[in-house]
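Box 3.1 A note on notation
Throughout this textbook, protein chains are presented in two layers. The first layer is the amino acid sequence; the second is a C-alpha cell string describing backbone geometry. Keep the layers aligned when reading.
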Amino acid sequence: MDMDGVLVHEEHPIAGADRFITRLRETGTPFLVLTNNSIYTRRDLSARLLASGLDVPEESIWTSALATARFLSDQRPNGSAFVIGEAGLTTALHEAGYTLTERAPDYVVLGETRTYSFERITLAIRLVVNGARFIATNPDATGPSPDGPLPATGSVARLISHATGVQPYFVGKPNPLMMRSALNAIDAHSETTAMVGDRMDTDVVSGLEAGLETILVLTGLTQQAEAERFPYRASRIVESVAELADELGA
C-alpha cells in the first residue's frame, strides 16, 4: 500500500488506518507500506508512523531509496555514486555496498531533499556530462508540506536533464520495477497481491503493470470522477482502508 493519502495525511492518520494495520498483523497477512519519498530510512518512517498512532514495523516499509539501491546493486555491484539526497538514500546505498564519491562516479543518483543545493546540482550536471549514468529515485514533480507543494525529485531531474540532454532512469512508482522489488522483499506473488493507493497515475498504473489487483482509495489525491478519466481502471474503488479493515475482520 501507499503511505501518504492511504494511511496518513502528512503526520495525521486517516480514519480506520490503525484498524487496517492491526487487522493485517492479526491475520498474519504479509504487507508493505510503499513510498516514493527517499528522505527517510525505514526506521525513521516506522517511528514517524508510530507517532501518528500506526504501528508499522520497519521491515514492513519499502521506499524508492531501497528499490534504487537494490537496482544499482544488481546492475553494477559495489559501484560508486554521487548522491543528492538524505539519509534514507545514502544509508540504502551504503548498505548495498556502494561508495559515495564526487570523483568519476558510476552514477549520479538524485533523490528527495528539503535543501537542494545549487552547488551540488551543478556538480551533478558536470558529472553527467562527463559520462556518469543518471538515476532518480522517483518522478514526482512536487511533494506535500503543511504550507503547500514543494519541488521534488522529478522537477530537479528535469533541470539536470535540460542542462545535460540526458534523461534519468526513474526507479520508483510508477515504474513496475518498484512493485517487483517490493514483491521480492516479502516473497509474494503478483497473482495473490493487491496494491492499495490513492493515485491513479502512480499507484494504480504501477500495480496494474506489475500484474497486481489494484484498489483505489478516495482519501488522497484522486477522486471518483477523476478516476473515470484515465484510460485504465482500478480493480476496485473504496472510500478508505477502513472498508478493507472490515473485510479482513469478516
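The first strand starts at residue 8 and ends at 9. The mean pLDDT is 94.
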